[in-house]
Structure formats: structure tokens, C-alpha cells
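Support request, please re-run this one:
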Amino acid sequence: MASSNKEFGKYFVIEGNDGTGKSTQAELLGQYLQNQLGIETFVTHEPGGVPIADALREIIKNGELERDADTNILMFTAARHEIWKRARQSLQLGHYVISARNYYSTIAYQAIAERTGSFLQAMEKADEIVALTRQYTDDLYMTPDGLVVLQMPTFTRRLNIGSRGRVDTPDTFESRGDEFQHRVDDGYDYVAEKFNAVRIDTVGRDNRQKTIEEVHIEIRKAFGFDAK
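Re-run finished. Output below.
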């Protein structure tokens, strides 16, 4: 993975399908860097993190508002543009940025899971997303210093999402059926291979869901932080 310019901080991304624990792990890693290593850290959760992105997030997450994949791409890109302006300020100060999601999510969801054509067309859409994202961010955003993809079986993810309690409106993506969720997982398989991500299974070989701390330690190891 590409390294940031020495005058900048570093940028790390935690990816995965809904319910895999990305936001929890991003916050936990930020706390570890801040409290244990003394590194100033900005934690963000795309597509939120700054006021305009938070407003767009409300629209994006509302499953009652019909739109197509291209509209989602444009909204995610707009939110991403605003979030990155704030994140880059932190990087310029030498701080670290931890993000739950970045443009890899848009490839997994909009190019692959929401596709209506062939897989070849999905790859073409992925290339369009890369070009559009680069236009409204920069090379630092496009090549984070570390990327992990959290993996979890659909049934376990459903339990995790259900434990959050009742929501007023259906989530645009979480509420879709297993067929869609399997396509999202396919999308993340593509992302992991294409962008050289470290895959972290959140369920062990004994079918036991790993603890939050166990996953946290694996993420620290993947990003090269002390994980003793």
C-alpha cells in the first residue's frame, strides 16, 4: 500500500458490509492511537463526519426515497468531498485519520451489488467511480496507508444489525435481502483483491464470533501498530 508523504499524517480505512463492526473498530483504534501512542487522531464514518455530509447521510440512509445507483454514487461523492477537506486538514498537521468506509464501499455497493447489467459493466462502473472520486478528492485519499476488510457471515451480521433496535425508516442497504447482501460480499472480495486489503474474519474457525477486542488487536497488527 502507498505511504503518505512524510510531512503528512497517515490515513487508514476499515471496510466491510453493514453490521461487521467498522464504526466500533474505527473509534477503538482512534482511542488507542490517541491514548496509548499519543497520536492526534481524526475518526470519521463515511458518509458522515461533517455537517453537510451528515445531512446527505440522512437522505442516503432513507430507504423510502427511491433512486438509482448513479444517484447514490453522486451523493456519496459529494459527502466524501466534504469529509476529505476536513480529514486533509488533520493530515497536514501530522495527525492520523481513521475512516470507517471510503470509496471502496461505493465500488462494492453501487458498482457491484446494485448493478443491473453484466459483471463487465460493473467493472466499467467501478472505473468510473475511481475516476470521479479522484476528481473530488486527491491521491492521498485514493491510496490509504492501510486498508482492512472485515468479513462476517450474513446470519451473524443480521443479528448485529437487529440488536441496534427499531428504526423509523428502513435503511437503504441494510434492509435489502440476502441476495443483495451476498453481492455486497462479492463486491468486497473484489475490493480486497484489487486494492490489496487485509481481510479479517470476525468469526473464528470454531464459528464463535470474535470479541471486539480480538478484532481490534488484529486490526492493529494489520496496520503495523503494537498489538501485544
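The mean pLDDT is 90. Residues 154 and 178 are 7 Å apart (CA to CA).
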